[in-house]
């Protein structure tokens, strides 16, 4: 697929919303369930932290051990994020102007057009699952992880339009603040409540999809690659899959929707296909 360039030197794709110098990218609204779920998750974390402090004080009677116990969760989150970032820095291929330059231009252009002051680093990791495309951060750095399945045997993108939408989705997570350290700490307690942390994650995924759709409105069909992989997605009927979100019923399917951390493919496609309705987080 050929690239087109605008006067500022950025790369555009079919369906991309081009911004002039006088225009500014306005972030789309977050999913309506994201903020309420975030508040609930923060409250649950604070309550659990208070119980943890009370228990530590009751057992040890030591102010020092109480403070150490309270700091354990933030320290654990910091360590986990740091080791994860270190693993990609040590093992993965970093996207740069000399390594996969076309992907580097895409990340730079998308980051600029989506309102980021600083473009994230990008790494390519081997793997046969496009779902391994991810976004995270450590310290002041934010970074993307791209699945090797997006590349062909010659090292070029199999479908630049698909890759652009998946990258825009991950950059949307960064732009929406989902990768922040203190947000992770403030919601960590919700992971102990079955279904609560997963519900917030699903709402955040819909918000990131809103970012990607706002910037690449003609490329939402790219989510088909998450259902069938990069080899067969062109044979997938997105409308047919989206309709199943309305027709498929069952207790086991409902439980799956309630506990999975990502919206199911059928619900995600339904939300991208019908923009008059928000993605379903619960029922």
Sequence-ordered SSE layout with sheet pairings:
Layout: E1 4-5, E2 11-12, H1 34-60, H2 63-91, E3 93-94, H3 101-113, E4 121-125, E5 134-138, E6 141-147, H4 160-175, H5 181-186, H6 196-215, H7 224-232, H8 238-247, H9 251-259, H10 265-273
Parallel strand pairs: 4-6
Antiparallel strand pairs: 1-2, 3-4, 5-6
Written account of the structure:
Helix 1 crosses helix 2. The model is unreliable at about 1-10 (pLDDT under 50). Strand 1 and strand 2 (about 10) form a beta hairpin. The chain is of the alpha+beta class and about 280 residues long. The strands form 2 sheets. The chain has a 4-stranded mixed β-sheet, sandwiched between helices. A two-stranded antiparallel ribbon has the order 1-2. The protein is about 50% helix and about 10% strand. It has helices at about 35-60, 65-90, 100-115, 160-175, 180-185, 195-215, 225-230, 240-245, 250-260, 265-275; strands at about 5, 10, 95, 120-125, 135-140, 140-145. The relative contact order is 0.14. It has one domain (about 30-275). The protein is built from 10 helices and 6 strands, in the order E-E-H-H-E-H-E-E-E-H-H-H-H-H-H-H.
Morphology: globular
Assembly level: single chain
**Helical proportion, percent range:** 40-55%
Class from helix and strand fractions: alpha+beta
- Secondary structure tally, helices: 10
**How many structurally independent domains?**
1
Uncertain segments are 1-12
Q: How much of the polypeptide forms β-strand, as a percent range?
A: 5-15%
Rounded to an integer in angstroms, the radius of gyration calculated over CA atoms is 20 Å
Average pLDDT: 88
N-to-C SSE series? EEHHEHEEEHHHHHHH
Strand order of the largest sheet: 3-4-6-5
Total beta strands:
6
How far apart lie the N and C ends? 39 Å
Summarize the biggest pleated sheet: 4 strands, mixed
